[in-house]
Design goal:
Blueprint lengths: L1 H10 L2 H13 L4 H10 L4 H47 L10 H20 L1
Helix pairs in contact: 2-3, 2-4, 3-4, 4-5
Length: about 120
Amino acid sequence: MATAQFGYAQQLNPNASFAEALNLLASGKNTGSVVQQLVMKGLPVPMAEHIVAQAGQAKRAAFRKAGLSIFLRGIGLIALGIIITAATYSLAAPGGIFLVAFGPVIAGVINVFRGLGRMITG
């Protein structure tokens, strides 16, 4: 009897519902189906819609923050590739061999576009 009451109270807990909505949205579920799942667990429709809206905003903010991190990492890799290339070029004897570090530059460009995509789409 006590577990049934606890289960019901947990279903109506806004924090647990927010976390569940956030996880469902992050896994690709649409807002309508997430609202429907929360309503089926006993939340009133307006509260479920509000929780899903707040979770959607939190998801977009987290994705944009992650996108910025990926973008900056890409810029760093591009800079590293350029620095390595410039350093080996300046250390090489005239007409000598130097290293063109295109690996970090290519990885950096990929990360820049991945980061931009994530920041734009949220």
